[in-house]
């Protein structure tokens, strides 16, 4: 084999083992959301999660929190379920107007998917044989509650949530969407956490019990109905997308410390809210 062919093979192999090439919070973002959620589960929810996870996961929801990104290739129908496109520059979200795929098919967006997999999981322990694969329902739900908290997963239609906006992250070329999936988290890990995602998770957990302790109750509850309340999370995301992600950014912007230092608190908050709300949803579903 020629060297060039080997390089192509290695690159293709890397695409499969590094799901951060595809969009959604990157692997560390999703891992963080699931790791924050799991210790907050009630006994009933913890038992259901343990029962539904494949044995290979060793009762660690985090290890499969990016499963939904890895199956996009085998389940192409699931791709539109990771995000919501809202009208350009409007900075609002409405389920009836926005939750559809590119062909206009209703409910095919991340908010519709959260409702779908929540209602499937509500059949756990009730029907002798559910018509749905509840292991997949759990893995989709855990992933999508993370995605809906990534501000640019509820972004503008024409730029595909920042995927078509080229920027530089310090000296590297990337797109705005990827900055919010991965780069802000990676730079924070390198600077503050010894490049270790566990240190980031610990720091967020400390803030959940201290700085944010008064707010956690309001994150966990929905003003109407039981958690999850994806319409609330999506409305918060498009507001954060307008106020922070898109703000001051244009084609070929160079994003450096000014951007990183002011946006990192938003990323930290959204990861913490995602984790707290995933636990609240599972606790409500499994009773
Ligand atoms: C609901 O879940 C089923 C099973 O995974 C899937 O086929 C369907 O596309 C999902 N629909 C939505 C809107 O999430
Ligand atoms: C449910 O989905 C998982 C993950 O895709 C798969 O490994 C398992 O075989 C499925 N279970 C059934 C009963 O189809
Ligand atoms: C935790 O809260 C402190 C004080 O507000 C803040 O400086 C720090 O950046 C926060 N860390 C995380 C990971 O949220």
UniProtKB/TrEMBL annotation:
Q: What class of enzyme is it?
A: hydrolase
Sorted alphabetically, the Gene Ontology BP terms of this entry are: DNA catabolic process
GO terms of molecular function: metal ion binding; nucleic acid binding; RNA endonuclease activity; single-stranded DNA endodeoxyribonuclease activity
- Gene3D superfamilies hit by this protein: P1 Nuclease
Source domain of life: Eukaryota
State the family it belongs to.
Answer: Belongs to the nuclease type I family.
Q: What is this protein called?
A: Aspergillus nuclease S1
Annotated organism of origin:
Coffea arabica (Arabian coffee)
Gene name linked to the record: LOC113716771
């Amino acid at each position: 084999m020629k060297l060039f062919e080997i390089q192509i093979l290695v690159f293709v192999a890397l695409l499969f083992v590094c799901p951060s090439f595809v969009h959604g919070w990157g692997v560390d973002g999703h891992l963080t959301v699931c790791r924050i959620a799991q210790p907050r589960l009630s006994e009933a929810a913890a038992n259901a999660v343990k029962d539904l996870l494949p044995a290979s996961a060793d009762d660690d929801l985090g290890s499969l929190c990016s499963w939904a990104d890895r199956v996009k290739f085998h389940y192409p129908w699931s791709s539109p379920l990771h995000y919501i496109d809202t009208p350009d520059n409007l900075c609002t979200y409405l389920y009836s107007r926005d939750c559809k795929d590119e062909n206009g098919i209703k409910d095919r967006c991340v908010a519709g998917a959260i409702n779908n997999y929540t209602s499937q999981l509500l059949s756990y322990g009730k029907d002798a044989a559910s018509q749905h694969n509840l292991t997949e329902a759990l893995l989709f739900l855990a992933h999508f509650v993370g995605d809906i908290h990534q501000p640019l997963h509820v972004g503008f239609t024409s730029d595909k949530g920042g995927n078509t906006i080229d920027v530089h992250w310090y000296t590297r070329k990337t797109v705005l969407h990827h900055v919010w999936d991965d780069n802000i988290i990676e730079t924070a890990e390198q600077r503050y956490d010894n490049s270790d995602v566990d240190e980031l998770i610990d720091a967020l957990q400390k803030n959940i019990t201290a700085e944010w302790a008064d707010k956690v109750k309001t994150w966990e509850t929905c003003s109407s109905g039981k958690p999850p309340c994806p319409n609330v999370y999506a409305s918060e995301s498009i507001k954060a997308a307008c106020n922070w992600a898109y703000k001051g950014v244009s084609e070929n912007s160079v994003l450096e410390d000014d951007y990183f230092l002011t946006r990192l608190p938003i990323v930290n908050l959204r990861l913490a809210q995602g984790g707290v709300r995933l636990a609240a949803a599972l606790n409500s579903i499994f009773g």
